[in-house]
Design a protein that fits this description.
Structural class: alpha+beta
Low-confidence stretches: none
Largest sheet: 2 strands, antiparallel
Strand order of the largest sheet: 1-2
Order of helices and strands: HEE
Number of helices: 1
Distance between the termini: 81 Å
Number of strands: 2
Helix content: 55-70%
Radius of gyration: 26 Å
Mean pLDDT: 86
Number of domains: 1
Length: 89
């Protein structure tokens, strides 16, 4: 009966480490893409909500979305305009 040599065991361990590294990199890439998709869906939903509230004249006001890039993490806020003639450019 023939046993495994140290070189064979090290090769198998090396291959396993490389495969695990590739899996971790792929998972992180998938996670970032998933986070981006979720965030973009949230922003699209709040923009649609603002549009729908304005078109329906909910509370007889116009609605808007404020994007703050100075805060960390960056945020967006749905707001009701103070008067009917308020427009964002």
């Amino acid at each position: 009966m023939r046993g495994l040599t140290l070189v064979e065991i090290l090769v198998v361990i090396g291959i396993a480490i490389i495969l695990m590294g590739l899996v971790i990199i792929s998972y992180r890439s998938f996670q970032k893409e998933s986070d981006l998709t979720n965030t973009s869906q949230e922003i699209m939903n709040v923009l649609r909500l603002s549009q729908n509230k304005t078109l329906a004249s909910q509370e007889t006001s116009q609605w808007g979305v404020y994007f703050s890039t100075s805060a960390s993490p960056q945020e967006y806020i749905l707001f009701k305009a103070l008067n009917r003639f308020f427009l964002l450019s």
